[in-house]
Amino acid sequence: MTGPRSPSFIAACVQLRAGRDVAANTEAAVSLVARAANEGAGFVLTPENTSIMEAERGLLFEKTWAEEDDAALAALRAVAREKKIWLSIGSLPIKVGDAKLANRSFLVAPDGAIAARYDKIHMFDVDLAGGESYRESRNFDAGTEAVTADLPWGRVGLTICYDLRFPYLYRALAHAGARFLTVPAAFTRQTGEAHWHILLRARAIENGAFVFAAAQGGRHENGRETFGHSLIVAPWGEVLAEGGTEPGIFMAEIDPAKIDEARGRVPSLLHDKDFEVPRASLATVKEAS
User: Fold this and answer.
1) Which of 5, 101, 260, 287 has its CA 20 to 30 A from that of 150?
2) What angle do CA 69, 71, 76 make, to 5 degrees?
3) Per-residue pLDDT tens for 49-62?
4) Is 9-270+279-287 a domain of CATH 3.40.50.10240?
């Protein structure tokens, strides 16, 4: 599966250590996005939970808003417009009702318009070793649609964090024309140490796509520890850029011709057999308009 040839570009993953103060988190994110743009990035990505990392339900709902009232979203759209870049806002908590939020990713165009929205499909409801436990579905409604959108360099498929563990989602996105995949995350330290690099490289290799994974890193104000290690992975599996645990920007030159090269060498997308997708709703991918 090949797409039109397009020029190389610079991509940048913004790594954050968000706390409980939305204004401070937003200021840090906007500053790093602007810095990446000033250093030549045309496509900049931020992590999951860009505007806040808060586990306590009451405080979380006090500091979240409907999309039209979200100050972090407005500020990030403004910096994309000012710098004339494509910006993937990894996710923001967006109120969708009195008792539920959406963990929503936004793709923002260089004029500041929202080009696509994606609500995280797979909820992180797990019990890890050492008593570490999460119930994302307590506060968030799961999304129901996979989403792609067109960038100047090719089509991108949007995902978030725990989605990474469900390969059929990425296969559906690739068959829908995605040549780039976003995986903004706030991976836990223990799961990240075990699986982060392996899973991201696998999603890139098996789909012949670039993977951009901007991450939260370090120990947060609420006590949670995230793995960091923002990654940009090439379609053949090479790691082109990697962070540690500190906030910063991690950049790489992206040559879209590498996608066709990888898919030509191992054309597995052409060899897929017809079978029933485990979740029928994921077999159809929504193209952002």
Assistant:
1) 101
2) 125
3) 999 999 899 999 99
4) no
